[in-house]
């Protein structure tokens, strides 16, 4: 089987979970000897040659093609300057906010040119890039005919998937890694929601990364449950990471590591920390990361008068991330809405017991973790206290958690995906 | 006798280096030697050296008729000794003329007056000792608290230490209809004279001098003398208090600030009845006209002239309270490095950097801060403080066992 896949980023040039998940999936497909044509808006040239890569920026669009006009018209109205920033890493968040000031510098555009140089980022003109990407997809679908099925990852690539389907007539599978409801709560960006909804309805089948995400798709996007298959993400490497790095402080450390945004529920971590510190002053809490709620969290920690026990590291990269996991005694992910959430699995690899919110997809696959409602700060504080003080339970989590990881393999995911393709193709014919 | 009293504040904090969470428990040195040295060297070239040379020239030229006062913070003295001995030497020369008065303050430019009398007294004493040591046995008679922070209570503490006078801001909300151009006295200890800054004329030099949108731009010595001549005859004292960095650093040499100062003494002495005096001379000669009530502390900062530049938001209060919680433990510890860090961490600038008022006004805060945001300042300070607390607790345990 040949799959024409549309993504937005691919390792090593990624800013979040989407690129990593695509990488794992393509790797899994390789394991089963399936061919993948993988399109990204911008290729950097140092991607691992796992697929037949197509650089969106290299595709010449033939404007004489009448069928393309429709996509052009449909999408050019989407000029939005709001915060359309899915999967925005903390470093990117900073860049993005800087970028908004300096405005566009890295995209050259000319109405006379027939190619479009994508930034491949999540910049201010994201919407323009998304609509251009659909044109590129239409061109590719017209030029290439040697594929059986189209697979588009997240809303950024949905217009591309829809265009490719319309031009080629081949079935479309859309893969939902996150929805606008996860990112923004109830105050969704309407244009993004519209694109998501259009993609889901145009698709022949939908893949969701968790049951939680599937439920959102059914409830908020009006898609019948029978059209959706849940395929949980996996891990690329399940080996336990042994770190030489040693803790420098006598106290135990409880860590939050991630973007400090609404979606990740940082405020619940802060409130739970206060409850724990009141009972046990020999604990340090660390909030690692950056995001639009960082300053508010700092204010709150100061207001609760616990800033000598609650630390902020800013955005961590490279070795510092590993060091942070290594010195943590408990890892907490209190996400308000997390389609999957790969970070707790990283913590497990470092032998760190984890507490995750019930509102996360990863809670569906990780059994050896404490699960609490994100809003239940009392339960969260209890769980933190228990993992810090009762050796038995944290020891058990350490042993069993790593066993569980070994079962989460991308080749299993790919195998299930192949049967989704087969089913979809069968329904077509 | 009508007189002008010049007092210049010279202060540099020990700025913290970027101190990360991962450093807590391991790295016990908090100070950004490179940055601190660079700042001192830069300001030395632009301000301290040329302005000291100019003042020396003026003092010699007017032979006893021109005089000024300085307050040199202890953190400045320490950095000057380490990074700018040439500047120290030029200050020593100035003091040796006998026309330059030195004022006392807290050693580390601290806010201790607001928190702990004991710590306040300790830091004042330390500053006194240090001045004695560096300036040939010199003993200041007049006190100025950090950022001219003053209240009736602080005045009483200062009086108790034996000072004749204290300097503070002529804050509008304290003075009301009264003029700053008189000598007042403390409410609790009436023998302590209170000298108030005339912020209008001080700021004409310190802030507005080079402002081209100011209707009175450019400020000339003739204009300035005309203004002081317009002051009602019965008002005797004009206190011009400002940061020393006004000369050459806040107002660059190109603005003509040095030329203004070079010609000001002659203009004042020739065209007006004003003389020049130091704070202790003013305190000794001018009678106190009345008590001045300052129940709530005032300062010379920002439009509000209150404490909100350093204290008041949650970050500042948290940092301040956590720091001073250590006071009693630190006092029992005999360790020069802990004592040094204890002092330097108290410097008011650290709290100034955490001020969130600049969101609305006061680009002044931004100008002085080595941090991008007050949040960065808070995090960095708290990281260093967390390590400091660990050290203090460890030392305390060692001492007790």
From TrEMBL, chain A:
Residues covered by the Glycosyl transferase family domain: 239-399
Every Glycosyltransferase subfamily 4-like N-terminal domain range: 137-235
Protein name: Glycosyltransferase involved in cell wall bisynthesis
Alphabetized PANTHER family for the sequence: SULFOQUINOVOSYL TRANSFERASE SQD2
Keywords of this entry: Transferase
Transferase listed as a keyword: yes
Keyword hit for Transferase: yes
Listed InterPro entries: Glyco_trans_1, Glyco_trans_4-like_N, Glycosyltransferase_grp1
GO molecular function annotation: glycosyltransferase activity
PROSITE patterns per UniProt: PROKAR_LIPOPROTEIN
Entries under Gene3D superfamilies matching the protein: Glycogen Phosphorylase B
From TrEMBL, chain B:
Keyword tRNA processing attached: no
Gene Ontology MF terms: catalytic activity
Keyword flag ATP-binding: no
SUPFAM superfamilies: Glycoside hydrolase/deacetylase
GO biological process: carbohydrate metabolic process
Domain Glycoside hydrolase family 57 N-terminal: residue ranges: 6-286
CDD domains the UniProt entry points to: GH57N_MJA1_like
Superkingdom of origin organism: Bacteria
Keywords from the named record: Carbohydrate metabolism
Coiled-coil residue windows: none
Cross-referenced Pfam families: Glyco_hydro_57
Gene3D superfamilies in the cross-refs: 3.20.110.20
Family affiliation: Belongs to the glycosyl hydrolase 57 family.
Name by which UniProt lists this protein: Alpha-amylase
Originating species: Algoriphagus boritolerans DSM 17298 = JCM 18970
């Amino acid at each position: 089987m040949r799959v024409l896949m549309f993504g937005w980023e691919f390792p090593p040039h990624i800013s979040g979970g989407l690129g990593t998940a695509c990488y794992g999936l393509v790797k899994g497909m390789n394991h089963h000897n399936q061919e993948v044509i993988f399109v990204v808006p911008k290729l950097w040239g140092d991607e691992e040659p796992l697929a037949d890569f197509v650089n969106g920026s290299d595709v010449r669009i033939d404007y004489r093609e009448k069928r393309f006009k429709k996509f052009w018209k449909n999408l050019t109205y989407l000029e939005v300057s709001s915060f359309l920033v899915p999967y925005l890493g903390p470093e990117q968040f900073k860049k993005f906010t800087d970028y908004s000031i300096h405005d566009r510098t890295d995209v050259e555009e000319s109405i006379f040119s027939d190619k479009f140089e994508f930034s491949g980022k999540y910049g201010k003109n994201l919407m323009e890039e998304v609509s251009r990407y659909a044109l590129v997809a239409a061109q590719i679908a017209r030029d290439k005919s040697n594929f059986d099925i189209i697979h588009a990852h997240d809303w950024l690539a949905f217009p591309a998937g829809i265009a490719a389907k319309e031009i080629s007539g081949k079935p479309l599978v859309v893969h939902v890694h996150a929805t606008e409801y996860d990112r923004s709560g109830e105050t969704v960006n309407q244009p993004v929601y519209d694109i998501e909804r259009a993609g889901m309805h145009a698709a022949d089948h939908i893949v969701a990364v968790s049951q939680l995400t599937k439920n959102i798709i059914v409830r908020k996007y009006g898609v019948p449950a029978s059209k959706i298959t849940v395929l949980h993400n996996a891990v690329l490497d399940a080996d336990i990471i042994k770190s030489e790095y040693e803790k420098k402080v006598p106290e135990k450390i409880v860590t939050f590591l991630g973007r400090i945004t609404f979606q990740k529920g940082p405020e619940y971590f802060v409130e739970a920390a206060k409850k724990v510190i009141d009972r046990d002053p020999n604990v340090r809490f660390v909030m690692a990361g950056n995001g639009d709620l960082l300053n508010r969290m700092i204010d709150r920690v100061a207001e609760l008068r616990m800033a000598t026990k609650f630390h902020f590291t800013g955005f961590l990269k490279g070795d510092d991330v590993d060091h942070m996991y290594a010195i943590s005694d408990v890892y907490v992910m209190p996400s308000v809405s997390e389609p999957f959430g790969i970070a707790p699995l990283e913590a497990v690899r470092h032998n760190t017991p984890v507490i995750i919110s019930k509102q996360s997809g990863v809670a569906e696959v990780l059994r050896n973790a404490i699960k609490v409602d994100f809003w239940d700060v009392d339960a969260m504080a209890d769980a933190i206290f228990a993992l810090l003080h009762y050796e038995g339970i944290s020891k058990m989590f350490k042993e069993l958690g790593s066993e569980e990881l070994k079962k989460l393999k991308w080749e299993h995911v790919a195998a299930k995906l192949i049967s989704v393709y087969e089913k979809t193709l069968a329904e077509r014919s | 006798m009508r007189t002008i009293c010049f007092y210049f504040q010279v202060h540099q904090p020990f700025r913290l280096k970027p101190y990360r969470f991962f450093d807590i428990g391991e790295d016990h040195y908090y100070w950004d030697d490179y940055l601190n040295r660079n700042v001192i060297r830069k300001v030395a070239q632009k301000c301290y050296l040329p302005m000291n040379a100019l003042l020396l020239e003026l003092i010699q030229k007017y032979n006893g008729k021109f005089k000024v006062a300085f307050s040199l913070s202890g953190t400045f003295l320490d950095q000057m000794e380490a990074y700018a001995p040439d500047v120290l030497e030029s200050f020593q020369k100035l003091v040796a003329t006998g026309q330059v008065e030195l004022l006392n303050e807290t050693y580390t430019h601290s806010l201790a007056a607001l928190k702990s009398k004991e710590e306040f007294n300790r830091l004042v004493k330390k500053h006194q000792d240090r001045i004695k040591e560096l300036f040939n046995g010199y003993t200041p008679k007049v006190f100025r608290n950090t950022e001219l922070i003053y209240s009736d209570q602080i005045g009483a503490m200062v009086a108790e230490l034996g000072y004749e006078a204290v300097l503070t801001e002529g804050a509008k909300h304290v003075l009301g209809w009264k003029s700053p151009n008189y000598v007042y006295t403390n409410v609790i200890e009436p023998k302590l004279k209170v000298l108030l800054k005339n912020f209008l004329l001080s700021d004409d030099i310190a802030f507005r001098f080079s402002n081209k949108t100011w209707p009175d731009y450019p400020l000339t010595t003739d204009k300035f003398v005309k203004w002081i001549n317009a002051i009602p005859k019965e008002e005797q004292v004009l206190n011009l208090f400002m940061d020393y960095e006004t000369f050459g650093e806040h107002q660059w040499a190109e603005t003509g600030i040095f030329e203004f100062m070079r010609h000001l003494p002659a203009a004042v002495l020739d065209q007006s009845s004003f003389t020049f005096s130091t704070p202790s001379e003013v305190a000794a000669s001018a009678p106190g006209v009345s008590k001045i009530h300052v129940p709530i502390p005032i300062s010379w900062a920002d439009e509000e002239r209150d404490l909100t530049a350093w204290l008041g938001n949650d970050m500042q209060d948290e940092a301040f309270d956590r720091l001073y919680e250590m006071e009693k433990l630190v006092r029992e510890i005999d360790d020069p490095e802990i004592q040094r860090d204890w002092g330097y961490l108290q410097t008011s600038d650290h709290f100034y950097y955490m001020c969130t008022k600049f969101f609305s006004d006061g680009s002044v805060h931004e100008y002085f801060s080595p941090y991008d945001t007050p949040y960065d300042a808070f995090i960095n300070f708290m990281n260093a403080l967390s390590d400091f607390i660990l050290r203090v607790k460890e030392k305390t345990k060692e001492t007790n066992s």
